[in-house]
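Lecture notes, unit on protein representations.

Consider one protein chain, 357 amino acids long.
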Amino acid sequence: MKLRSIIQSILLFVIGLAIAAGCTNPAVYITTTTDVAASGDAAPNAASLGFSAWPGWLPWQVTQEQKLFEANQASVNLKWFDGYLESINALTTEQINANSQTLNDTISAVSGGADKVVVLVNDNSTGNDKVIVREGINTIADLRGKKVAAEEGAVDHFLLLLGMKKAGMKPEDIQFVPLETGQAAAAFVGGQVDAVAVFAPFTTQALKRPGSKELFSSKEFPGAIPDHLVVSRQFLAESPVKVQAMVDSWFATLDYMQKEPAKATEIMAKRAGVSVAEYEEYAKGTKIFTLEENLKAFQPGNNMTSLMYAAEEMTKFLEEVGLAKQKPDLTKLFDDRFVKAYAKKAGSREQGAGSRE
């Protein structure tokens, strides 16, 4: 779910580590936070959509490169953010209209006064968020008193606290070191902290430390880290047609990825700055949601497969650990009309195709 800023190559990463004293970020980013259309020109009156380094959001790069925004009448300036929290803040301050972010981070922002709406489920994290530890740490209880780095208030801090709670530990039982995710991974590899909570592709980076290993991951907490397309309420109210075009473009991208998996993976691996083989490993830890799974997720339920139920449970936990400033209003957090509208159009196309056969 997500940070989701990355190494361009292992060689550059190693070079970067040599100058990482003081916890500067060794990651060499492929682009800047001001990336827009492939031409480099921001289209006037286009919607701005933010995304960052997480496997469940990298399909947006496919959308752009295969001109699927244009094919779905979506005028979009796609913006890459080196820092995941930077993208959240950009949406909160309405510097962008839409962003790719996790449910718990959205709830945290809403609790602080932001007005955001979830309109699409991109994926669930099923192992790509991990707590990675040095040699000699074998249980969560072994983290007691140790230095543990993560991006404060972001998704992997959330995962760390979930694991600690399950083991009967409190936040104050560790020496928490707040660092941006790329810096956190670098600090761990450099031996400056004992453990780190990061997501892919930073997990690959962190596991370069000799003797390091995964302690636990999002796989142990199914449904706890869903990732979404989130828009500001003002943008939703003023430009519902643009929101619909973004949603339509996403599902068109999933169709393309099914038809051209090799090309799609090549595009996403390049955006992530990793090899195709490395990127294919990330697919195991990310569950991309189908149209049917999207429709189901927006329905009420009594387990974490329901967004409404998950949001209530996450809110309780975020309040308990101090990551939610106040109880947020969840009644208007989800809007499934765009997914439903796409499903209706898709159904009509299938019926039309069937009638011509």
